[in-house]
Design brief:
Shape: globular
Low-confidence stretches: none
Strand order of the largest sheet: 1-2
Strand content: under 5%
Mean pLDDT: 80
Number of strands: 2
Number of helices: 26
């Protein structure tokens, strides 16, 4: 590591300290002012969020430090096409807010596997999906974010990697574990603000350094490292010259690194899985006050997603212009010396620029930006993962837990996750993030499409039943795993030393593979469903699109279980009344952990029905409905324009 400028001047340090204090203050304020003593309050922020925190939190949960390191790095290597990843989301946040969330709200669910359980019945799909989601969180999101955050901290402060990670996780854990979703969403809002402002300032410095957009385009194409041979081997020119199509989003269907059909269709399938069926994202939307707030939040997130192209992708490319020999190095020995990775140093593109370009004080601000992006995605993932665990897995182990027990289980699981994350760091380090971002993308495109297919068909095709969904998921899983294991066994290789994986396995681009996998899963789901008995409509009212407005009473497929639970609850509440008043110390502890439930009056059956109706209500005020609809259309137009402009 050869960066001597450490963050060691008073200006930078004070900025970082202030940042941490403000984040903690916001987290504690949210803890203090919201109801977190119930499952709905802790995991869904009491269903009371307005639109701007929802939009900001969606954006912050999505953009982690992995984006700053990975996307900027990919951009330094291959141009702006990676920005297409970000813009694809513009379309899918609209799909999320208009098509998916209304169904989830009407179903009255807290987690995504729970929706599948209501829609199909049975337990196996619910448990499978919960476990798969948790594994994906640990292997892709958490590990990549922690790793890239650590790369950054090492470059800037020179702290020991583990120490840095443990400090970060401790601060994050403090308000996530005690404060629940409301604390996460409000701190996310603050982090979004800091991220956008900080990265805009850096973008300004970067473009000023290069001399404007036209110079940027010209100089990028000339950014060729000086050192291109080692021993008596001269490296193939393809490996170090910038791609000719660097400034196009849509690239050749066969030879391109992100082929255009893959970007249009394959990526849409992954985006459908990520934006419309992933617990982290959907949970933000379910916490909204009403549908108009949710839709407005989605639109806000969409507009924010326009920015990464300009505040992350282009600065990454500028970094290659300014530090060509470091960022674009190709000789393994040289790379090893610059950034400790033989594969290449594109990952340090963004951090390098922060450390070198920014003046004192602002450098501290940018480090706060990186920490903000890291902490916001980690808190989001921790909260959502513990929701999944508590509502879908824990309730299977213990048939009738009380609310308090659920809250404790969720918090204990977060601690466990944090432990796993720390233990997982060395593994990610050795997988060397030379290809870290590609790893994440490819893992999700091998495991995500079957889930996307199941949700899409569950909502839009009421003929699909449990057997179809289950076998579709299984066939999809096996197909995806076979490709993933083969690819990891052979290694992905790089330009200087390509891997010797046979074409039939690794030759198909991962975005094309996602399309094939989605197709296979869909065919299996439909075929099996049509060969088996359909689910009667009485179980499906308001659970799929064609029956979304029906007023009839729905008999849930798991109705008998629910009834048992309700009876148990009645007995429990009778027993509870005889408990004594807790002592002072116990009260303080309960308050800190948000366990002091105010014993409300017992609701009668009618009141419970009314409350349930209110929670599953998706009606909107006509005025605001029209406002968000018009904005949604504008957002889609903007998305199309942006793709066309850079195509």
């Amino acid at each position: 590591m050869e960066s001597n400028i450490r963050i060691n001047n008073p200006a930078d340090i004070s900025v970082i300290v202030i940042y941490f204090l403000v984040v903690l203050a916001v987290g504690l304020w949210a803890m203090y002012s919201t109801n977190r003593g119930t499952v709905g309050g802790f995991f869904l922020a009491g269903r009371s969020m307005v639109w701007w925190p929802i939009g900001a939190s969606l954006f912050a949960s999505n953009i982690g430090s992995g984006h700053f390191v990975g996307i900027a790095g990919t951009a330094a290597a291959g141009g702006i096409a990676i920005g297409g990843y970000e813009w694809n989301a513009l379309i899918f946040v609209v799909v999320l807010g208009w098509l998916f969330v209304p169904i989830y709200v009407k179903a009255g669910v807290v987690t995504m596997p729970e929706y599948l359980k209501k829609r199909f019945g049975g337990k196996r799909i619910q448990v499978y999906l919960s476990i798969l989601s948790l594994i994906l969180y640990i292997f892709t999101k958490i590990s990549a974010d922690i790793f890239s955050g650590a790369v950054f901290i090492q470059l800037a402060i020179g702290l020991n990697l583990y120490l840095a990670i443990i400090i970060l996780l401790a601060i994050t854990a403090l308000y996530t574990i005690t404060g629940g979703l409301a604390a996460v969403i409000y701190t996310d809002t603050l982090q979004t603000f800091i991220m956008v402002v900080g990265s805009f300032i850096l973008m300004g410095f970067a473009f000023a350094e290069v001399g404007g957009y036209d110079d940027f385009m010209r100089k990028y194409m000339e950014a060729i490292p000086s050192n291109i041979s080692y021993g008596n081997t001269t490296i193939d020119a393809e490996c170090y010259t910038p791609r000719r199509d660097s400034f196009h989003i849509f690239r050749d269907a066969i030879t391109g690194d992100l082929p255009w059909p893959g970007l249009v269709f394959g990526l849409s399938i992954i985006a459908l899985w990520y934006w419309c069926t992933d617990q982290v994202i959907v949970q933000r939307c379910l916490s909204g006050k009403n549908m108009s707030h949710v839709k407005a939040g989605c639109i806000m997130c969409g507009y924010l997603k326009l920015l990464p192209m300009f505040i992350i992708v282009m600065p990454g490319m500028i970094s290659r212009i300014l530090y060509t020999d470091v960022v674009a190095c190709v000789v393994p020995e040289v790379c090893q010396q610059y950034c400790g990775t033989a594969v290449g140093c594109t990952n340090i593109a963004y951090p390098k620029m922060v450390v070198e370009l920014m003046p004192n004080g602002l450098r501290g601000l940018m480090l706060s930006v990186m920490l903000a992006s890291l902490m916001s995605s980690l808190t989001s993932i921790f909260n959502s993962a513990s929701t999944l665990f508590t509502m879908d897995i824990y309730t299977k182990i213990r048939s009738r837990p009380s609310e308090k027990e659920l809250m404790l289980a969720g918090r204990a699981f977060m601690l466990l996750l944090i432990g796993i994350s720390i233990a997982w760091v060395p593994v990610v380090q050795s997988a060397q993030s030379g290809q870290l971002f590609d790893y994440i993308q490819s893992v999700t495109s091998y495991l995500g499409p079957p889930i996307a297919a199941v949700f899409l068909l569950a909502i839009f095709c009421k003929r699909v039943n449990e057997q179809g969904a289950f076998w579709g998921l299984m066939v999809g899983l096996l197909t995806g795993l076979s490709r993933m294991i083969a690819e990891f066994a052979y290694g992905t290789g790089n330009c200087v030393a390509p891997s010797n994986c046979p074409f039939i396995i690794c030759g198909i681009h991962y975005l094309y593979f996602a399309m094939i996998l989605f197709g296979v899963s869909t065919i299996v789901i439909l075929a099996v469903s049509f060969m088996t008995k359909p689910i009667p409509d009485v179980h499906l009212y308001r659970l799929c699109w064609s029956l979304r407005n029906s007023k009839e009473e729905r008999i849930d497929l798991d109705a008998d279980e629910e009834q048992d639970k309700a009876d148990e609850k009645d007995e429990e509440s009778v027993n509870k009344e005889s408990e004594e008043e807790p002592g002072c110390f116990k009260k303080a502890y309960n308050w800190f952990c948000g366990l002091d439930q105010q014993k409300g009056p017992k609701l009668s059956k009618e009141e419970e029905e009314a409350l349930k109706k209110k929670l599953t209500d998706t009606s909107e005020v006509p005025l605001w409905r029209n406002v968000v609809n018009i904005n949604g259309v504008i957002l889609l137009t903007v998305a199309v324009f942006c793709h066309a402009f850079f195509a």
